[in-house]
Amino acid sequence: MQEYTFDWKTQDGLHIYARCWEAGSPKAVICVAHGLGEHIGRYEHFARWFTARGYTVMGYDRRGHGRSAGRKGHSPGVSALVDEAAQLIIEARTRYQKLPIFLYGHSQGGAIVLSYLMRRHPKLSGVIASAPWLRLAFEPPAALIALGKVMRSIYPGFQQANNLDTSKLSRDSKVVADYEADPLVHNRITAGNAISMMEEGEWLLQQTGAAPCPLLVLHGTGDEVTSAEASRAFAENLSGDVAFEALDGLYHEIHNEPEWEAVLSKAAEWMDARSA
Question: Radius of gyration of the chain from Cα atoms?
């Protein structure tokens, strides 16, 4: 395996940091979109596991996250976030022109890859959404939502704590401790980002018809951050090569649970069947 970093600038001039773990003689490429508040460095074990099985893994720090530029937890809208995922696909196709390409997104990244799929109909070998943020697993306070909507209209960069209960990320206490100690992790989200994502989730849940490419949705039934039932409903609304799998008792970060290798094996088997 070889590692390298690369970057690009967004249309509004932000520097985006990206990273690649290249397998020897790769059979396919997995492009990764991370979740809210985290960064692509938290996927190193994910990347090493897949590269050992012939998959090159590419990922990036979303604007306002990790080593990328931008106000913490902010985006001007969902379209800008989808543009970043689309650019990662362009980077993958430029570097690995003859290989199948898969797109994998977790949490907010899961919603972003589903938006990319349903709004732009990309020609990919498959999309995997891990615990996508379609709806939250809890009802946020109505007053907080009302404040967010007001602030989005007058100051979309208004920043608040995301109030994430880190103990709900994983049943592995080391994962939680490492998350809390990680200097590149933050707990910020802006009004513009939060309200736009909630509206996008509702739009996605209204979509029907054939999925533009093969789709696998994975969600732990013990997730108290994002809604597993919303993920199930989204997948069941679509036809074609679409599968939803509920992972019994797993928390939000299914790739960081004690059973993480079994979870990645499910994803690998699914991709193997679609990358021939």
Answer: 17
Which residues have a catalytic role annotated? Answer: 107, 223, 252
Distance from chain centroid for Cα 17: 16
Q: What is the CATH number of domain 2-272?
A: 3.40.50.1820
Average pLDDT score over residue span 66-89? 96
Give the three-state DSSP class for 189.
strand
Run of H or E including 220? strand 215-220
Q: Could you report the per-residue pLDDT of 234-266, keeping only the tens digit for each?
A: 999 999 999 999 999 999 999 999 999 999 999
CA distance 260 to 179: 16
**124: closest CA among 114, 134, 109?**
114
User: Can you give the length of the chain in residues?
Assistant: 276
| CA distance linking residue 66 with residue 11, whole number of Å | 19
Q: Is the pTM of this model over 0.85?
A: yes
Instruction: Check if the beta carbon of residue 46 is closer than 8 Å to that of residue 33.
Output: no
Neighbours of 19 (CB within 10 A): 23
Which spans in the chain are helix H? 44-51, 78-95, 108-120, 142-154, 173-181, 191-204, 228-237, 260-272
**Alpha carbon distance 96, 101 (integer Å):** 9
Distance between CA atoms of residues 103 and 125, nearest Å:
8
Q: How confident is the model at residue 143 (pLDDT cuts 50, 70, 90)?
A: low
Mean of the per-residue pLDDT values for the chain? Answer: 95
Terminal-residue alpha carbon distance, the chain: 22
